[in-house]
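Below sits our specimen:

——
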Amino acid sequence: MSELSNGLIKHKYNLAFSVQLNEVELELYAFRIRHCPSRGGLGAYRHFRNAANLLWPKLSWNPWLERAIRSLCENQWVVWAGCGASGKTFAAGLFSMVYFLASPLHTSILLTSTTAKMIRKRAWPVVQELFRTCKGGYPAHMVDSKTTLQAIRGDDKHAIFAIPVLDGSTSKAVANIQGIRSPRTMVVVDEATDTPEAAFEACSNLQKGTKEFKFLAIGNPHSPFDQHGRCAEPEDGWGSVSIEDEEWKTRRGVLIRFDGMKSPNVLEGKTIYPYLINQSQIDQAIKYDGMDSPAFWKYTRGMWAPDGVCKTVLSESLVQKYRALEPASFVKTSIPVAGLDPAFNGGDRCMLQLARYGDFENGKMGVLLGDSKEIKINANDPEPVHFQIAKEVSRICKEAKVQPQHLAVDATGE
C-alpha cells in the first residue's frame, strides 16, 4: 500500500481510501460494490469467497455451495429447490452473514421459517455457529432470546431477524415482516412450500423503498401451485424444463436445483462431503420409497413430480390444457361481483375478492377473479369492527360498481 498524491491510500484491486482497510474490510467492500474485473476487481462471487475464507478459515466449500452462493451474488430474485441434505439452509445462512457484514448499519435481513421450533432447528443454528466461529469475533450483538443479530446493541432495525410465519395468526406475522426494511434488505424464505401466501407477499413487498434488495425462496419441491412452485415456474412454462435441468430462468430471476442423483458425493464415487446426500442414502430411498414415489422426487431428485405421482384434485396438465391460469374473456356481457371473508374465526385477514360473472366462449357461465382487497381494522377507531368492515367494503364495492345483491359474505363463525 502507498499514499497517492491526493492523500488517499492505495489498496489492491485498484481501490483507494482515506484510511487503511484491513484484508477483510477490503474484500467486503469489493463484494458490496460488486467490483468487476474490468475495474480491477474479481467480481462479487470471488470477493465474497475471499471474505468468507478470511472470516472462517475452516470453511468447507463444495460444488453445490459454490453454485448457491454464486446465484445470490449474480441475481436479485433466486429460488433454490433440491433434495434433502443439499446444504441449502447453510448456504443461505453463510451468504446472509457476509452480506450483512458488508454494511451492517444499512442492512436488514429477514430469515423466515414456518414455526419458532423450526427456526431453532434450521436457519438460526447456522447463524449461531458462524457467529461463534468467526475469526477475531463477528462484530455484532446477538440476542438469542429474540433470534436476532443486531449491528450494535439495541439496534432493532439493522439486524438479522429470524421470524416464524405459522406461529399464531398470519396477520401478526405479516405485521412483523412489514416493519423490517433498510436501504439494503434481504429476505430468505425457508420452507417456502409451507409459507402462507400473505407472508410470502409481505416478504416480496419489502423491496419497495430499498436501494438494494435480494429475495431467496428455499424448499423441497412439492407442487407447482404452492408459493415455492409459483416462484420457480420457468419463464417459458413447466413444459420447457425436464428432470435433467438444474437451472432455469424464472419470471423474476433464476432457479437453482440440487439433484441428489448428481450430488458431488455421487459424481466423485465416494463420500467427500459427509454433510451432503450420498449414494448409500439414495440407494435406501430407492429401496424404501421407490423411484416413482412423491417422496423420492421431492427429497432425492429435488424436482417437482410429474402428473400422476402426487395426488391432487387438478393435475398440472389438466390446468394447462384448459388454460385455468390464463385470463378468460366474456362473449357478450358480464357483471361485477364480490365475495367477503370477514375472518370472524380469527387467524386470517379480512379479505374482499372482486370478480366478474358472465358468459365465456365455451357457452358456459363463469367467474373471472379480479383484485383481492384486504380490509384493515383500526383498533383505535371507536366504531365497532363490523361497522368498519361494512364501511370499507361498501366503499370498494361502489368503486368497482358491485351491487349489494351481488356481494356474497361468509358468515361462518358469526
The first strand starts at residue 2 and ends at 3. Residues 192 and 228 are 5 Å apart (CA to CA). The mean pLDDT is 91. Residues 385-399 form the longest helix (15 residues).
